[in-house]
Amino acid sequence: MSNQILTEIHVDLDNRDKNTALFRVFLAFPVLIFLSSFSEFADNLPGVIGGFLVLPVVLSLLFRNVYPSYVLAFNKALLELSNRINAYLLLLTDEYPSIEANQKVRLIYPEIEGGKKLSPWMPLVKWFLAIPLFLLGLIYAIYALALTLVAWITVISQGHYPEEKAEEVIKVIAYWNRLYGYALLLITDEYPSFSLN
């Protein structure tokens, strides 16, 4: 099994709802407000960490070499919620993002054995090592937005989402999930690939 977060998103390709696709950003506004309410945990930092609990993990790994299970559960739930919202905003699904887990958008985490498989010192340097990944991720995000714009036009005009564009957008989401798993959630010491594959 991989030491990275695996992303599974089931895309609605055909019989798309043209009306909701047209106003998707406005329809997602309530759930975006709900998601943004978690950023209070970030101590008013810009949305870089977006509500993930990072400091407790760093301290626990550094001093006890333990990853608190309740923090892992919270971070996993928050990342899955974020992925459901992204899948909805990027038109991958017409299903309104649930605040509870569902099978359309699923993340599979590597086994960390309570933190015993993780280096206690790596959290101190992972953010620095991840800077090139974040910069490349911004380019990938622009790429995904461009593909989504083309897909949006196709959904509005023809009622289906082009499969090849959906696959590429999912790869970008998966890239960001691997990056979050390494640099913010700290669930792996394995450096993520620069590739979308």
TrEMBL record:
Residues annotated as transmembrane: 21-39, 45-63, 127-153
Keyword field: Membrane, Transmembrane, Transmembrane helix
Keyword Transmembrane helix: yes
Domain of life: Bacteria
Protein's name according to its UniProt entry: DUF4389 domain-containing protein
